[in-house]
Amino acid sequence: MDALILQFLNGLDKGSAYALIALGLTLIFGTLGVVNFAHGAMFMIGAFCAVAMQSMLNISKVTLDPTKLDFLGNPAQIRTPMVESLFGPELGGSIINWSVPLSILLAIPVMLALGFIMERGLIKHFYKRPHADQILVTFGLAIVLQEIIKYFYGANPIPTPAPDAFRGSIDFGVLIGYAQNTIIYPAWRLVYFTFSAVIIAAVFAFLQFTTFGMVVRAGMADRETVGLLGINIDKRFTIMFGIAAAVAGMAGAMYAPINSPNYHMGMDFLVLSFVVVVVGGMGSLPGAVLAGFLLGVVESFASMNEVKSLIPGIDQIIIYLIAIIILLTRPRGLMGRKGVMEE
């Protein structure tokens, strides 16, 4: 049972990333009707926001210490991070240590700006074009963004550690009544799941309980009628595009300690996230979240050695098998709406 609980936790961890990316994809498709293959790149850029924040906080000033000599006999160079010079060693060190959570403060404005630029500069020209055209242009944009990141940061993964307080593991079994050292689980993965749950709840609350969100939901259901009421629905949809990009960016920034950022991580998640969206139902926000966690848990159980010994390679294809089964029995997905992509 402890092994099953551990795999379930792993599934929630994977499902959190799937659900956050799929949520942003569904927001864009539901509001703008655009199949955005560049959304995985938003996740990747968010992860590199964590890398950038770590680099900025570690910018140092160099002083010479005449009491210490290097191997050439010159005064040794002492590098002190600027943050420590400004706030002192204790507070400055803490700020550097918490660079990953602080990177959210960088990721939000960067991703909002990038989302606005993408939507106004490119995506708006493809609203009435076939979905195949949208896929081609956004996939091309994803490749461009990927190569830009590769040019500036290189091809190798960049380790981005979690804060010291969450760098180790915790005895999760004790929290649910098991004996000590029965279920040991990485602390940051639990933080990531909690963070994902908060973001998902915040997005749904924003859409459900704010006037802005209510107008957006009305526009998703009947864009023309909302426009006839004198509401600039296009402007609100542009803002939603930026919010979707920000959600993906925050997901990527907080995922950096789990999977060291690399230039192709967006593509790695993109295909699976689209499968999640299709399984949940195109245009269905609850369906995207449900399918994200469901497929994450199933993939985790399929990766168990006991399962792989019975069916070799099942962990690589299980998500696609489930997608096929669900779409054969429920062509619109788990919670899909009638008429979406059925013309």
Helix share, percent = 55-70%
Q: Main sheet, how many strands, which sense, barrel? A: 2 strands, antiparallel
Instruction: Report the principal-axis shape.
Output: globular
What is the number of beta strands? 4
**Within the largest sheet, what's the order of strands?**
1-2
CA gyration radius, whole angstroms = 23 Å
Structural category is mainly alpha
Beta-strand fraction estimate: 5-15%
The N- and C-terminal alpha carbons lie at a distance of 47 Å
- Looking at the structure, the CATH topology is ABC transporter involved in vitamin B12 uptake, BtuC
Tally of helical runs: 15
Q: Which series of helices and strands comes N to C? A: HHEEHHHHEHEHHHHHHHH
User: What is the mean predicted local confidence, pLDDT?
Assistant: 85
Integer count of domains: 1
Q: Low-confidence segments, ≥5 residues, pLDDT <50?
A: none
CATH architecture name: Orthogonal Bundle
CATH C-level label: Mainly Alpha
Protein name: Amino acid/amide ABC transporter membrane protein 1 (HAAT family)
Keywords: Amino-acid transport, Cell membrane, Membrane, Transmembrane, Transmembrane helix, Transport
Subcellular location: Cell membrane
Pfam families: BPD_transp_2
